[in-house]
Specification:
Number of strands: 6
Order of helices and strands: HHHEEEEEE
Strand content: 25-35%
Helix content: 40-55%
Distance between the termini: 60 Å
Number of helices: 3
Largest sheet: 5 strands, mixed, barrel
Shape: rod-shaped
Radius of gyration: 27 Å
Structural class: alpha+beta
């Protein structure tokens, strides 16, 4: 079994080097741990359990570290402070035509009304409900927030 775990470890490492997308590195770690168990004469069932446990643990650790390194974790930005703020429509918001421009805190944003098919005229005040991509989703300042 030691040889089998060594082959699995090498194969997973080679696949990882070929893709560089963190798809198999955790299996290499699991196979390495199982190989150590096999070297010391552990039963095959224990080797398989160690392989699975170490692979899952490595997956969890590498995913979090990888996301932190690539900046893919959700991190709040300065744009988030626009949520809940009041703004002014500087170009009519028309969801059907996918048009609209709002000024919030001196910054211009593309905007959509929170209600489907709605439109909000230029010069009206709006409240930012949320941000989707690079667009503000707004409602008229006079409209009540939906529950």
């Amino acid at each position: 079994m030691t040889l089998i775990w060594l082959i699995i470890c090498i194969a997973a490492a080679v696949i990882e080097l070929g893709t560089l997308a963190m798809v198999s590195i955790w299996f290499a770690a699991g196979a390495l741990a199982a190989m150590v168990c096999a070297f010391f004469g552990a039963p095959e069932l224990l080797q398989i359990v160690v392989f699975a446990a170490v692979s899952i643990a490595a997956l969890a650790v590498f995913r979090v570290k990888g996301q932190k390194a690539t900046g893919r974790l959700n991190t709040p930005t300065n744009a988030d402070r626009a949520v809940g703020r009041e703004g002014l429509v500087i170009k009519r918001i028309d969801n059907i035509r996918d048009e609209g421009l709002v000024s919030v805190d001196g910054m211009e944003w593309s905007a959509r009304a929170s209600e489907d098919g709605a439109s909000i005229d230029e010069g009206e005040k709006v409240v930012v409900e949320r941000i989707e991509g690079a667009k503000l989703i707004v409602r008229s300042a006079g409209a009540k927030k939906e529950a």
